[in-house]
């Protein structure tokens, strides 16, 4: 027998990156009398949980979906057999999937706590291993990505992020064929930077355009620059490559996590709104030129204030301006209806609810544009 739940971390660090589920399963069988161990990962659209150890096995059912959605362990005792235990696989709020097992041990708080440590170690290892193996990428992809989508997914920071004072999530749609829409974020100390972008055009050219802008803003941000310099460097980079023939619409936000003060650079089509209880109000900002439209463009910040419990939402034009079949734009009223349905949901669930509402609004028609939605809860 090994040294307990903490030892699995050392085992995972010593294991090949593509063998993490097997190492975890062996540890659980040896130390916790576990059987029927499975690691289930969410697909790119987070519509189902898919097995890794037995790729031909069933997808996650209602219990697995409950664990994934609630982000809490689920214990399912059976009077005539082993107890089934499900644990969320999550890193800093980024939901990866669910660890499932059956055990004959008594399923009390002590066991659940031990298994939670193991699940947390596995989640961190899985996230790190993604850089060195394609195994988990293949499980999450239920169809082949376009080249543009491949580039976009590699650029994303994650799908959700939690901190002491905030909950944050983003959604990108359609998952397998996105083009120029994108989001980015970074937290350092008490400052959270959030960016939503929409590259001009279609296909891989729009993706490459967005990639230039994202990396230019990251370059400035990582050098300690504020959002004005981030926007200006990105604008200069896009203009130097395209000469004003292509541009990137962008909304950059820097949120003070201590006081809720927000500085914004509005350089295009993404729209922001704030929800508090059932009240939803748009954030009106003076729109400046999109990035890369002209050379040496200079930007200014504008400010607004979040209150404790506020939910900040940012939507690209693929969300708020979607008008399938000539219908009224989704952002006029249907978006507000969808947002009100998310009132009791965490951001990681809320973005999915709104995106599903957008799909329903298209009523079977193909979307004309890709879409991004970012949701932030400021907790203070």
UniProtKB/TrEMBL annotation:
Residues 168-378 form the PPM-type phosphatase domain. GO terms for molecular function: protein serine/threonine phosphatase activity. Keywords: Hydrolase. Pfam families: SpoIIE (PF07228). SMART domains: PP2C_SIG. The keyword tRNA-binding does not apply. It comes from the Bacteria. InterPro entries: Bact_Sigma-Reg, PPM-type-like_dom_sf, PPM-type_phosphatase-like_dom. This is PP2C family protein-serine/threonine phosphatase. The keyword Hydrolase applies. Signal peptide: none annotated. The lineage of its organism: Bacteria, Bacillati, Actinomycetota, Actinomycetes, Micromonosporales. It comes from Paractinoplanes rhizophilus. Its EC number is 3.1.3.16.
């Amino acid at each position: 027998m090994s040294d307990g739940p903490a030892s699995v971390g050392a085992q995972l660090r010593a294991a090949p990156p593509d063998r993490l589920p097997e190492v975890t399963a062996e540890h659980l069988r040896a130390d916790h009398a576990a059987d029927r161990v499975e690691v289930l990962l969410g697909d790119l659209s987070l519509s189902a949980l898919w097995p890794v150890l037995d790729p031909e096995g069933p997808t996650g059912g209602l219990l697995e979906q409950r664990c994934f959605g609630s982000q809490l362990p689920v214990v399912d005792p059976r009077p005539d057999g082993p107890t089934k235990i499900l644990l969320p696989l999550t890193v800093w709020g980024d939901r990866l999937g669910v660890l499932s097992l059956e055990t004959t041990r008594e399923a009390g708080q002590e066991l659940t706590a031990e298994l939670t440590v193991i699940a947390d170690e596995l989640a961190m290892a899985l996230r790190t291993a993604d850089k060195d193996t394609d195994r988990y990428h293949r499980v999450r992809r239920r169809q082949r990505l376009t080249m543009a989508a491949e580039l976009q997914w590699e650029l994303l920071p994650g799908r959700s992020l939690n901190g002491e004072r905030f909950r944050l999530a983003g959604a990108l749609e359609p998952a397998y064929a996105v083009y120029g829409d994108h989001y980015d974020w970074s937290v350092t100390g008490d400052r959270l930077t959030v960016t939503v972008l929409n590259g001009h055009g279609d296909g891989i050219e729009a993706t490459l355009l967005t990639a230039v802008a994202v990396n230019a803003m990251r370059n400035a941000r990582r050098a300690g620059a504020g959002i004005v310099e981030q926007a200006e460097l990105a604008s200069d980079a896009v203009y130097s490559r395209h000469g004003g023939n292509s541009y990137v619409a962008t909304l950059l936000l820097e949120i003070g996590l201590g006081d809720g003060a927000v500085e914004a650079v509005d350089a295009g089509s993404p729209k922001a709104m704030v929800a508090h209880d059932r009240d939803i109000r748009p954030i009106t900002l003076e729109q400046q030129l999109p990035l890369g439209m002209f050379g040496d463009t200079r930007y200014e910040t504008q400010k607004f204030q979040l209150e404790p419990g506020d939910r900040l939402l940012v939507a690209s034009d693929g969300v708020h301006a979607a008008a399938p079949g000539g219908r009224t734009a989704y952002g006029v009223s249907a978006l507000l209806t969808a947002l009100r349905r998310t009132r009791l949901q965490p951001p990681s669930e809320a973005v999915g609810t709104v995106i599903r509402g957008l799909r329903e609004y298209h009523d079977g028609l193909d979307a004309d544009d890709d879409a991004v939605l970012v949701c932030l809860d400021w907790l203070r």
